[in-house]
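Translate sequence into structure tokens.
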Amino acid sequence: MSGTTIRLKGCRKAFSDGTVAAHDLDLTIEAGETLAILGPSGCGKTTTLRLIAGLERPDVGQVFFGDSDVTRLPIERRDVGMVFQNYALFPNLDVAGNIVYGLKVRGVSPTERNKRCLELLELVGLQDHGKRSIHELSGGQRQRVALARALAPRPRVLLLDEPLAALDAQLRERLRSELAQLLRGLGITAVFVTHDQGEAMALGDRI
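Result follows.
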């Protein structure tokens, strides 16, 4: 798995109440780099992530993945994986069902889905949890399932929105180092937002 360079050129985003969430933003994220966007609530971190994802479109400016202008492309055509703060897992599906959901939607064969699921379960250390219900998992295990699901389609870019915020302090500390190791091993371009300075320093190649 390898990443792609991301560039935001002069991106501005304002909302209907007049709030300017991103103002003439120029940002380059190198292929394979993990960038941490650090700051307090309301400073525009999540808006920047959503501009990269395609969940928001800049009022002015452009977004590039490599040499391709993706400014007007929706999220489903940008080849990105996303991990949300609340994990957004499907409670009616087991662990394996959650991981392969995106592959199923894309029409990937059952054999290939099963193979990819086993690879990802091993990657995130949940080899024996494929048949488990989401309700049976701890917060840390749910976070890993969300990560595996985001990685299943082999995205060019991985986006993480406060990925450890919902966990208690002790678990957050442990998963922080595990996640840092995993991201470096993958070599994928990753961007995550956080208000936690320690998390930014542990996970980011650059802040």
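Note: The longest strand covers residues 20-29.
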